[in-house]
Amino acid sequence: MKPHGKWKLVQFFKRSSILLLFGFFVNPLVSLPLSVEETNNYRDIGKYFEYTIPKNPESTLSDLLKEDTLWRPNPKKVISFPRSKHPVWLKITLIHYGSIPHTFFLHLSNPVVDLFELHTEINGQWRTQWSGEQVLQKNKPIYSHMSAFPITLSPNESRTIYLKIKSDNPIFSFVSFYNSRTFIAYSKKQDIFFAGYFGAGFMMFFFSLFLAHTLRYKKFFYFFFYLATVLLLNTYSTGFIQYFEFGNSNSWKNYLFPITIHLSSIFGLLFTLEFLETKAFSSILNRITISYILILTFVLLFIFVLDLRNFIQLTVFLIIIPIFLAIFISIFTLFKSKKKLEVILFLLAFGVLLFGAALNTFTVQGFLKPIHFASYSLPLGSALEVFFLSLALVLRVSDYRKSNEQKQEIDLQLKIAQKLQNGLLPKKRSHALGYPLGFRYLPATDIGGDFVEIIEKEKELGLFLCDVSGHGIPAAMIASMTKVSLEIWSDILNKPALAADKIRRSLLSLLSGHFLSAFFVYIQPEERILKIANAGHLPLLHLDRNGNITTYTSYGRAINEFVPSDIKEKSFQLPVEGTLILFTDGVIEARNVHTGELFGEERFYQLIQALAKKHPQVICDSVIEQIEKFQKSKRSDDDITILALSLDSSFEVSL
Questions:
Q1: 273, 295, 467, 610: which has the highest count of C-beta atoms within 10 A?
Q2: Domain at 34-186: CATH code
Q3: Spatial distance between the Cα atoms of 633 and 201, rounded to a whole number of angstroms
Q4: What is the C-alpha to C-alpha distance for residues 278 and 271, in angstroms, rounded to an integer?
Q5: 84-106 confidence digits (pLDDT tens)
Q6: Is residue 169 a contact partner of residue 257, using CB atoms and an 8 Å limit?
Q7: What CA–CA distance (Å, rounded) separates 108 from 78?
Q8: Given CA atoms 311, 316, 320, 325 in this order, what sign does their dihedral have?
C-alpha cells in the first residue's frame, strides 16, 4: 500500500474511533462511513446513511450544500420514512480499500414505484442518475426492473453520494452494496427466478380461467380474479412493474398499487366464502365477511378523497384483516367440514401468505432484525399460497369430476325412469268406450309416483288411479311394477276388490317401506253398473250437469307390506249423465308458496261445479291451471293427477 494510502487508513481509524467514542456518550450527528472492497458484498446498510427532510420540497442538492443542513443518522437499518410527504435526502460516504478501480452497485429493493435520484461528484462535476423512470432500462436492461446505481470507485478513494427519494408511497427500502460480478449474477438469477415465478403464475392464471369457463362455478371465477390481482401485485414487490410503460409518467402505477391490494382482498374473501362454503357452516361468519367486503369496496372510493400516501397506508393496514379473516374461517371450517385435506391446504395457503407479509412488514417497521430475504417474502409467500390453493382446487375439481360422473349416471337412470313413467301414463285419447275422456298430470319432480290405467273391453271399462308414497325413481319403479300387476285385473275386470287383493299380494315383497293408495272403477254401460274398490284413496266424484257433487267410496286401507288392506267392493247404479272424476291428494294439498295456504277441498269443489257443463278435458286443464295460479309455481310438493270421464256419449259441448 502506498504511503498516501496508509496515511488515509490511519486517518480513517482515528476518525472512526473518535466517532465511536462520541456516539457512545451522545447521539451522533453523523453516521459512520462504509468501507468497501471489490471482494465483498454489503447488505442492509441503512445504518450507514444520514438523512434530512428539507422544509422546501423543491430544494436542490446545491441548496442543501450551501445551507447549514442538519444531517441525522438513519434510525433504522432500512430506509423508512412513512410520515414524510416531502422528498427525503440521504447521504452515505464510501471508502474503497482495494488495489484496482471497481464498479459497485447500490441496490434499493423497494416494493413500490419511486423516483430515486443519485448525485455523485466525479472530477469536480456533479453527475445525476435516475431510476424508477426507466432510464436504466435503455442502458442496462439486465437490471432495469431494479432500483440500482453503478458507482465506480478508485483504490483508496473516499466519496460521498447523495440520494433523493421522491415518492407518493410510504418509503421503505432494503439497501445493499454489491460488487459488479455478484450483482450481475444476482440480477440474472433474479430474472430467471421471477421469470419462472410469473411463468408458473400465468399458467395457473389461464388454467383457472379454463376451470371457470368449463365448470361455471363461482369459486373458480373468484379464484381467477384473485390470482390475477396477486400476480399484478407481485409485479410491484419484485420491481417488474418497471417494465410496463404507458406515456411519460409513472404516476398511474402508484394509484394502481393500492387499487390492486383492495381488489385482491375483495376477491380473496369472496373465494374464501365460496371455496370453504362458509354459509353452510356459519351464517354469522358469512355475513361478517360480506360486510367487510362491502367496507373494502366503500373504502376504495376514498382514493378520490384522501392523499395517495395516506390512502396507501390505510390500504396496507386493511389488507391484514382479510388474511386473518381467511385463516380464522378456514380454522373454523376445519372442525365442521368433512373435506379436511382441502381445508388444511387452504389454511396453509393463507398461513404462508400471512407469514410472508408479516416478515416483510415487521422488518420494515424495525421490529425484526433486517433479513435480506424479507424483501422477497411477499412474492415467495404468495407463490406458496398459489401452490397450496392449486392443490386444493385440484382436489375440488376431482370431487366435481366424480360428482359429474355420478350425476351423469343419475341422469341416465332418470331418462330410463322417465321412459318408464311415460309408459305408465295413458296414451293420448279423447274417448274411452265411446265416452269423452280428460286427463292431466303434473309431477312434483321429473319423475313422479302417480299412475293412471284405462282398461277398455268390448262392453266394459276399468279406470284405475293410484298414488305411490314419495316421488322420484323409487316411486316410479313401484308404479311400474303396479302396472304389470294390473294384468290380474284385466282378467277379472268386474271384480275390482278381488283384483285389488291379488295385486297387493304380488307387490308385498317389492314395496320396501312404500305404500300406495288406489281406486278401482268398473263400468258396465249397458246394464248401468258401477262398481268400485277403494284402497285408502280419495273418493270418486260424480258431477252432474247442474253442478251437484256425489261421492262414491268404500272401505279399504292403502296397500302396504305391514297391514292388510281389507278392501271392500261396492256396487252402484251408473248415473245417466254427468262426469266421473278421479284425482290424487296433490290436487287439494297444493300449497301457496307465499302464505302456505292449501288449495283445499272446498275450493276444488267450487271450481269443478262451475265447470259442470264443460268437456272432461276442459275440466282437467282448468283445475291444473288454477292450481298453478294459486300456488304461484308450476312445481308442487306432491304429484297432481286428475282423470275425468263424461257419461254422456253424445256430449258435444265444445272444448
A1: 467
A2: 2.60.40.2380
A3: 47
A4: 10
A5: 778 899 999 999 988 889 989 88
A6: yes
A7: 10
A8: positive
